[in-house]
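Go through this:
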Amino acid sequence: MRGIMGTNLRMAMRALTQNKMQALLTLLGMSVGVAMVVIVSGLGRGAQLRIESQIEASGPTRITIKSGNLTPAGINTGGRQDTSFGEEAEGAVGIGPLVGDQVDVSQNEAVMDARRRMEAVRPTRHLNPPTPLGAAEIELLSHDVEHVIAVAGSVTGNASVDPDAGLRMRVVRVQGYAPAWPEMDGWDTLEGELPDGASISAGAPEVLLGPGAAAKLWPDGGSPIGRILPVKGEQLRVVGVIDAKEDDKAIIPSVYVPLSLAQTLLERDNYDSITVRTSSVAVTSAAAEEIGEKLRVLHQLPDDTFDDFRIESQSVSALPSMGSNPGLVRAVHANTLELEKQSWEEMAKSLRQAGRTFTLLLAGAAAVSLAVGGVGVMNIMLVSVAARTREIGLRMALGARANDVMIQFLVEAVTLAVLGGLFGLMLGGIGLMITEYGLHWATAVSPWMLLLAFAMAAITGVVFGIAPARRAALLDPVVALRAE
């Protein structure tokens, strides 16, 4: 069997070399079809992964912890307190009769109820000086809180640029980031590349710029990649430009350096904030509450004190002036958890469905290209059958069966398609590289995708080669030998 297959392959290659121009055009058609499949699959998968990354980065799976607390609104901590009883208490007839020079409010139920409410919320708690956030908090959040899958500390501050560098700006806003932060925040490179995790952990003197920072620093408008940014005596090499979210109206440009390097430049030992990511939207609120409880234990806060930290997530971001009163946070989470979970999951589901629809539309276009290549295979095989009619008749006269002839031409069709598939894989890979590095579009390639594209090429050869092979097998040997 192996010998017969080898013979068929040799005959197929000889037949292809006899019709070089037709074979070359057919190979080109198949190559374009397979390349389209590879490129479309890579773009579709890359777009889907990017959508999911953006959903995770911007969704309510992130919790930010900051040092210090704000005075809760409406609670007296030694300053001004609100003495209004409200409209329903005062009313049109006054709040109560005069007794001497004092107002008697004991019979006014609305006033007495308002007073009781005010006295109930007047705290005996007090605010402690904030505990700086450091390695102990990172350790706690990384190992002792359920559902936390990533932790990243950060510091931010202004730093001076060396005046002799000839730059347009004399000050930059340094933002230090941990190895987990680029993925957590959904960073994508517009130019250059992101440092690897080892370089970030080692505090390598490599800097990333925001989209508008290069124009603010270098007036010539050239590419910033490879340039040196001298900050406080440290020579920072620009390795990439990222699409980080930043204020376009900000005068001072933002630059991003590894966290340990930023702490050195800004002369800080602690963190401004710590951000964690949870495993899903459904557990974010519960994780935020657990973080608050465990940070109180870590900071050894008595029960009669407020938190010396703030916890911010999507649930409580609508209450920026109300501090981090644990009771209030629990109330907010209890009322918004299901709404937060359902609304975000619905939006994420819609975005993923849109990505899949986009991929299917592109896959349809790629399938048409592959079908065109298959028609080319059928065309050259029909031409080959017509040109080799006498050869077919001679083989049958010498004892070849109809099945042998059919297999011979089917092998030729599949060989042509497979060769086109191999060239198509190379063209598709080159196309994806141009798309990713030239146009900066997100792409993703997997071995299974390449194997599937190659298999589709072989299947196309079989499907479009059956009709010519069957036509050759059904020829009458006597009639075939008489053919000119």
